[in-house]
């Protein structure tokens, strides 16, 4: 990012359908959990807000892109323009964890770099008794990406805050490493 864009950050939230991306973003944006008895697939949701990070205002443009394969061109454009990523999988859905590897490869190809600012989120920890992705697997992937790893529940607003605060910290520390 150049210095003119220093105060404006585009964050793209990616993961397979049904992993709780919307719940994490909504808990951060609205500071509450919205329960929907039926899952409605997100195509694209955009949120804009200003937060203070390290005593300076930061303008966030958060884009949640649905997990559907049909969203290729739209998804590609957002990945290309992104400053940082929230990568979400469900701790109770192994396929969602495996799908993240494909998403990571897609980001690496589109952005033409191996490492990028990211937070890797194991969501639905409120269902941890049903978990079929080991914590160590997520941590291993996070180390490979040099990403911050978090375990969350989209039902807990403070977890949504923790995700985006960790991402901002990671992004600004990543910038100083470049």
Automatic annotation (TrEMBL):
Give the record's GO biological process terms.
signal transduction
Keyword Hydrolase on entry: no
Q: Which UniProt keywords apply?
A: GTP-binding, Nucleotide-binding
Gene Ontology cellular component list: plasma membrane
**N-terminal signal peptide:** none
Query: Is this entry keyworded Ligase?
Result: no
Q: Which domain of life is it from?
A: Eukaryota
Q: Which InterPro entries match?
A: P-loop_NTPase (IPR027417), Small_GTP-bd (IPR005225), Small_GTPase (IPR001806), Small_GTPase_Ras-type (IPR020849)
One annotated GO molecular function is: GDP binding
Return the SMART domains for the record: RAB (SM00175), RAS (SM00173), RHO (SM00174)
Protein name listed in UniProt: Small monomeric GTPase
The source organism is Monosiga brevicollis (Choanoflagellate)
